[in-house]
Amino acid sequence: MEIKTSDFITSAVNQSQYPESSWPEVGFIGRSNVGKSSIINSLTQRKALARVSNTPGRTRLVNFFLINGCLTLVDLPGYGYAKVSKADRAQFGKIIEEYLSHRSNLKKMVLLVDARHKPTEDDCLMLNYFRHYGIPFQIVATKLDKLKRNEIKKNERIIRETLALSMDEEVLMYSSLSKENRQKVLDAIFLDLLEPSTETIR
Ligand SMILES: Nc1nc2c(ncn2[C@@H]2O[C@H](COP(=O)(O)OP(=O)(O)O)[C@@H](O)[C@H]2O)c(=O)[nH]1
Ligand SMILES: [Mg+2]
Description:
Layout: E1 6-12, E2 25-30, H1 36-44, E3 62-67, E4 71-75, H2 86-102, E5 106-114, H3 121-133, E6 137-142, H4 152-162, E7 171-173, H5 182-190, H6 196-200
Parallel strand pairs: 2-4, 2-5, 5-6, 6-7
Antiparallel strand pairs: 1-3, 3-4
Residues 30, 32-38, 52-53, 56, 78, 142-143, 145-146, 175-177 line the site of guanosine-5'-diphosphate (GDP).
């Protein structure tokens, strides 16, 4: 799978503002600063499709993008930023829950965690949400380039244990900087969402 075109559709706060779409949809989510904007930009090979924000916690919009004219990618607000107020945090939670519980064409969530750190309580909660709603998910650990080679296996094990993943739930390690594992990540996220006919003409 390769991403040839990516176009911004719209930003939304609540369900009534979501674009009408019957394309299969993939949502990206994770703690603020985990590298969500960076991975969206590096997978789509766009410099600023998802603006790489230097004011974490501010992007509280749900952003929709059309990929290859046949599926949609959604950039959800980052959670867990310490410096936002309790009210703001509750607001983020509402936006995320509204999306997860109402988006009927949502096929998969990509949960981003930092490859360097043990997943947070918020990460675990988010994953439990997906399980609760029966939403398929893919875990991607970001900032792989920041790990020493001998840390990769160990950190992957800590991530798997903390998130209580089963044997068939894979953690992919990725770097938006070096783009290591880019093809693997693209295939794992998008390949099963494409119509077979679309894939044969790639
Ligand atoms: N070394 C390294 N830094 C990264 C990577 N991905 C993101 N970053 C940095 O982490 C910070 C947060 O990235 P951003 O994409 O804005 O995170 P977001 O808040 O989750 O959207 C920025 O300074 C990025 O340059 C990566 O794969 N490797
Ligand atoms: Mg961002």
